Amino acid sequence: MKNQVDYSLYLVTDSTEAILGSRDLVEVVEKALLGGVTVVQYRDKTSDTGDLIKTAKALHERCRKHNVPLIINDRVDVALTVGCEGVHLGQDDMNVTEARKLLGDDKIIGATVSSIDEARIAVERGSDYLGIGTLYATSTKKNTKDIIGINGIRKILHYLHSAEEASKKIKTVCIGGINALNVQRVTYQLQAPSDSSNPKSIDGVAVVSAIIGAQDVEQAAANLKTLLSTPPNFATSTPSSNDDWTSLSTLQTKALAATKVVHTTSPLSHNMTNLVVQNFAASVALAIGASPIMSNNGVEAPDLAKLRGGLVINMGTATPDALHNHRLAIAAYNASGSPILLDPVGAGATSAREEALGYLLASGYFTLIKGNEREILAVAQASGFTVVAKKEAGQQRGVDSGDAIYTLEQRAYIVSRVASRERNVVLMTGATDVISDGQRTYAISNGHSYLGMVTGSGCTLGTTISAYMSASPEDKLMAAVAGILHYEMAAEAAARRVDVQGPGTFIPAFIDELYRRRMDIVEEKIQAMDGLKVEPLSNVADAGLLKE
Ligand code: 3NM
After folding, report:
1. Domain Thiamine phosphate synthase/TenI: where (predicted)?
2. 234 in any annotated domain
3. How far is CA 106 from CA 87, 103, 127, 184, in A?
């Protein structure tokens, strides 16, 4: 029954030398079936019709044994001859309406789409499922039209969700460059809750080389199947529902406890940061009780990621070489499940930085993204939102923060929307910081204006937060709030000192106070947070600023 097809692991075949090699396709597909693929599409753009039919018959026999539907790419005549379950049609193939006339209602017809328009037409013409792509560049198919990334897929899913009934019901798989390293992240991010209660998500992933090109095909398919049914290591846990996150006394207790955990566990703080702040960041890490390493070499990231510390990726000097190293480190930390904080310094200031941000967001999952107002707006755009009714933001000049553009309510809305889409924590810094995991949002007004006059204060806040998140990974939002409070209350204490005359004398005093605050909390000289300026924002209204 075509309505009961399981699209979760959709295999597309490839008979070329580069992928299949000298192996026999039918035997390879048999292995993939044993590994657990749920649909097989026979795709062969070069063989003669006679050979196509012969192979399709053999494939159909194997697929039937496993109760898996066989779909033929492009060739309706071959599907009819073999009597298999359906066809898959690209944009240059026979159109879906014509194919439906020939195949009848019981057969499955799938269509390749890479835009909202193509999706709309494919639904109107009666497709049963859509193959949405190209997700990532792939050497398997050279003539792909568009690389649309996660955001392109999200836009099409969002359109399908908001269109008429047939669109809501249509099944979807995504395709292009999916493999064991990225499949969990791709599905995790595409299943992000949107603003509605039952958002449309993908029903499966379609892969070619990750299975057909594997040395052990059965094992590769089985591994993908397991990965699809297990949450990724980096998945954020949802806070327990009986936890009153709006209680400031609970928040203080947790924040003080988190400071002690950083002190006792001394987590590794791996900083891939710009030259300007390396020294300061290492000193801050030591003062709060973390163990810093300033390594910009992505090749050593897999070893460092095993130490279960936190990684800070600071886009301050986003050269192509740095980005390549970042990508290696992101893969390593995502695989280990350890937190990564992204600091998209200057995002929005130049088109190169915008591109760099897109590249980084496509490279992996970030536990927390922190930035000033303009940077987080650039993140919202890179995440696929259109910013509407944007006030005159003006061109960003340097990487300093500038004045607030939006009201507190609007900022709360922006961070919570982006966090809920990315399924992470988003922090927008400013005189009042706003932080959210999409469900819980806080405004924090601690800190001191000297912080804004010191180079690297934003970057080193990132260092602090990442150490806190790796020490207390069970609730990343709460860990980040604890880190911010340690940092900003130490800044207040430093600014109060009589020996502090301005931003210059502030710096050494600040490092002293970071250390002093940590020790005072550990020794329980500080047991309550006097001067806490945190406001839980329970009802973040839709400010209508971000459109999907
Ligand atoms: N169709 P791999 S991409 C067959 O974008 C195909 O429509 C695509 O191969 C599309 O899993 C693609 O090896 C190849 O990256 C996908």
Report:
1. 9-211
2. no
3. 12, 8, 12, 33
Atom of ligand 1 nearest to the CA of 141: 14
Assigned domain for 145 exists: yes
Estimate to the nearest angstrom the gap between the alpha carbon of 179 and the chain centroid: 16
Q: Does the CA dihedral 334-339-343-348 come out positive or negative?
A: positive
Residue 208 near ligand 1, beta carbon < 6 Å: yes
Mutation test of ligand 1: which of 140, 182, 211, 212 has the most ligand atoms closer than 8 Å to its C-beta? 140
What CATH number corresponds to the domain at position 296? 3.40.1190.20
The C-alpha atoms of residue 220 and residue 32 are separated, in whole angstroms, by 8
pLDDT tens-place string over residues 423-479: 999 999 999 999 999 999 999 999 999 999 999 999 999 999 999 999 999 999 999
Nearest CA to ligand 1 atom 15: 177
Query: Are 238 and 477 a contacting pair, CB within 8 Å?
Result: no
Domain end residue (candidates: 172, 194, 229): 229
Sign of the dihedral through C-alpha 148, 149, 153, 155: negative
- Predicted structure pTM score: 0.88
- pLDDT for res 539: 87
Residue having the nearest C-alpha atom to atom 5 of ligand 1: 134
CA of 155 to the centre of ligand 1 (A): 19
178 CB under 6 A from ligand 1? yes
Does residue 396 have a pLDDT over 80?
Answer: no
For ligand 1, whether the C-beta of 464 sits within 6 Å is no
Q: What's residue 395's pLDDT? A: 43
Q: How far is the CA of 318 from the centre of ligand 1 (A)?
A: 30
Q: Is the shortest distance between the CB of 41 and ligand 1 below 6 Å?
A: no
Distance separating alpha carbons of residues 105 and 128, to the nearest angstrom: 10
Residues 179 and 294 placed together within one structural domain of the fold = no
Question: Is 337 or 274 the better-scoring residue by pLDDT?
Answer: 337
Is the domain of 191 the same as that of 311? no
- 21 shares its domain with 149: yes
Residue-range definition of the domain harbouring residue 509: 248-547
Residues 198 and 345 both lie in one domain: no
211 C-beta closer than 6 A to ligand 1: no
> Ligand 1, closest atom to CA 43?
4
Spacing, Cα 356 to ligand 1 middle (Å): 24
Q: Among 197, 229, 261, give the residue marking a domain's end.
A: 229
In a shared domain, residues 206 and 263: no
Do 422 and 337 lie in one domain? The reply is: yes
pLDDT at residue 391 in the model = 53
3-state secondary structure of 490: helix
The pair phi, psi for residue 316, each rounded to 5°, is -50, -45
Catalytic choice (63, 84, 174, 459): 459
pLDDT score, position 348: 86
Whether 421 and 352 share a structural domain: yes
Specify whether 31 is located in the same domain as 154: yes
β-bridge pairing 129-132 and 108-113: parallel
* Residue 459 is a catalytic residue: yes
Instruction: Classify residue 235: in a domain, yes or no.
Output: no
pLDDT tens digits, residue range 175-234? 999 999 999 999 998 886 655 556 788 999 999 999 999 999 999 999 999 999 998 988
